[in-house]
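Q: Can I see a sequence and its folded structure?
A: Here is a first one.
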Amino acid sequence: MKYDNAEAERSRAVIDRSLTLELVRVTEAAAMAAAEWRGKGNEKAADAAAVEAMRAEMGRVHIEGRIVIGEGERDEAPMLFIGEEVGAGDGPQVDIAVDPLEGTTLCAKNQPDSICVLAMAERGGLLNAPDVYMHKIAIGAGYPEGLVDLDQSALENVNALAKAKGVPVSEITTCVLDRPRHGQLIDDLRTAGCAVKLISDGDIAGIIHAVNTEDTGIDIYLGSGGAPEGVLAAAALRCIGGQMQGRLILDTDDKRARARKMGITEPDRKYLTNELASGDVLFAATGVTDGSLLRGVRYKTNAIRTDTVVMRSWSQTVRWISAEHRR
């Protein structure tokens, strides 16, 4: 499902705005469940708790939902698997992408930026991406379309961005996942004079930071990370603006076969933001641990506090919701 321009997309509100708060309840439930496992060193238990809580709360939402990005294929996950029908079954037909606990290691170690994430779009609006890596690049709004491009080198991209901003390359800050595969990229950026913000996990938050430069000081996101997370990040960018490109890394016969099974017919295709997430889109994320995007779950004597960001593409609305849940 594609649209010719932003005005055409904004003319069609398919998902009722009342579902915005319903999504918040879903990610809040997952975050509170995962928070019970913060710092306990058990990634699987934390993830399982988030999945179970998210699935249970989603069953109360008035939608006919279909999981297109989830915990794995049908035979790999007991719930929130790709193709699973979710929701109360009495609302709009929607596609759903979830990362019940982005940053499982961060949660297990009680480190910053572990979040629970969900995106919802009208049926057919989210790329059904296999669980492979994806090359990604993202910058904020206000630049000419195509200023940065996956087909250019990292140095060409940061130079183009610096020129557009009217600053030297030494004033550009790049967000990169701290992984051995990015060693040469990091060296090249530092040699060029860029500052590099390394993140240990959580590239959904990393991409959001890169398009929210005024608040974060990060100018661009570069590197490879999970393809499902790329679709979720694109859903957020549809709501807040910015440019993103993604290309699936299908470097084995098995990966290409899995991609074909999920409807990917162009293995080398470069996807733009509105090709990863199109139409009417909602996005919600709740903090599990304290981070640069959201505060984590906090316990009071008789209540639990959560912080959530929820966005909608049609209205370009971003809401920050701090909630208190009575025990």
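Q: Show me another, different protein.
A: A second, unrelated one:
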Amino acid sequence: MEHNPSIREEAVLLLRRGVTNRVVAEHLGIPRGTVGWWRHEDRKRRGERYTRPTDCPRCTGRAVASEAYAYLLGLYLGDGHIVSKYKEHRLSVFCDASWPGLIEAARDAMLGVMPQPKVGLRRQGGCVEVKSYSHHWPCLFPQHGAGKKHERRIVLDHWQREIVDAHPWEFVRGLIHSDGCRTINWTTRVVAGVRKRYEYPRYFFTNRSEDITHLLTGTLDRLGVAWKQANACNISIARKESVALMDLHIGPKY
């Protein structure tokens, strides 16, 4: 469809002033795709190279929302990953659909770290994928790479270590919320000739990466939380005082 040249001129003028494609399209009553094409052609004629705006803390110098980042880092190392395509990276964290509070916490953490990219939710069976698209997610998670996390080295950069040291509980909370759980164990004892049932809570963390497991246990050591290696992939926290600490700062998923 051909448009009046004066309409195109007005649209280009508005676009150069910083008005968005959507607003220009609504103002002039033309398709947004047409406005986008006019913007592209105008930039091409003027030799202007488009750089998508970003609020990446690593690239703009903006202060990192360190508390949100510590939690998001734990989620990423647990059940998160980045899918990379041409000029596009998607950060995804998968949450059990039965824990709406965890889904909301993951969404808030992504928005807290980089507010500009939208955060979407996609349900897959019994899981919800919390996802955000940005070319800059690998800047914030340099652990991203080819292959599975447990098959490659996972080492924090110095700036990540500083954030974890400043917000250790948020980091542990992210790891537990992704690859951990709070369970109730039980046993029976005979007391005065009567067998009684006793229940006690404990926390588990399960991850196949030794590096990620060591990041958790090293942080627990600094927090004074006692833990045991249950098996090659499982960390158990069962001592009463340590469980009480975990309940105070972590608690069950919700």
